[in-house]
Amino acid sequence: MSHEPGPVREGSQQGMSRTCILSPYLPLRPSPCAGGFILQRYAPVCDMSMSPDPAIAPGKPGFFKGKAGYYARYRKGYPDGVFDAIIAGFSLTPSSEILDLGCGTGNVAIPLAERGFRIHAVDPDPGMIAEGQRRIRDPGACRIRWCAGADSTVATLGLPPLRLCTMGLSFHWMDRAAVLKTLDGMIEPCGGIACVNRNDSFFSHLENGWGDAVREVLTGMLGDGWDYSGRMKKRQEMRHEDVFAASPFPVIEERAFTVRETLTPDDIIGLQLSTSYAAPELLTDRYDEFRTRLNRRLLDLEPSGQFTEESVIHLIMAKRS
Prior knowledge:
Blueprint: E1 8-21, H1 68-74, H2 80-89, E2 97-101, H3 109-114, E3 118-123, H4 126-134, E4 144-148, E5 162-167, H5 176-184, E6 187-198, H6 210-222, H7 240-245, E7 251-263, H8 265-273, H9 280-283, H10 287-301, E8 307-319
Parallel strand pairs: 2-3, 2-5, 3-4, 5-6
Antiparallel strand pairs: 1-7, 6-8, 7-8
């Protein structure tokens, strides 16, 4: 299997935005904020290169246990414009303390650390943390504290007052209302939350060919039991925006960033093997079969092996009233 970087990224750094107050929730803390600062750009000190493809299939327990290698190699990061928007939106300075909750292998934590911030990267999966640590070229210069923890335990980790909490796809796995209440007691009065999400799963690609191919292969191999995470049954759950509306952080600005990418069958297959719905319990001992069947199906769809498309990255920046 090739170890060359997979997705080719290009596209707009601009995004649509809007700001609104979603609820009359009144915080008890004062809200006047200081003006912004110009942040010096730091030379990159963290290695964001792809990790080698895992030599063996992921292990058994948990949605993501044993998937960290796939996650690091195939989960795509975010364009500079996302981080520029976060830095400006929360007036971050080099002294700002940032929590990346559900950090995975560091797709948010590492780029922010490269820009000179101190990051507390928290994840419940030790494999994800270990993979994230391996991606750092200069641990002495990259100010990340990696810590095992979860939304239910974050208040016990002894973190300093935070300017910002970032969350990616991890947010939809959490008790969202509860964690926002917890973070209200940990974030400075002028701070807030940045929630970033990109449509990487096949659920978001059912109309462009390869999403249907993934679903067909999983259903053909595993029947209706393949939806191990239950995500298909949760399609109508409350939107993130509505959760923020009922939280201490009801003032939101939304941005959308479009990136144009070219994916190969290897990229698409590896991405599926990083997900919760391709669960270890279901695919153990069948990884080679899965790869072979999906690769064949994808090449039937696109003999060139090049799937070029536009993906949308959504950013929600939430603050108190």
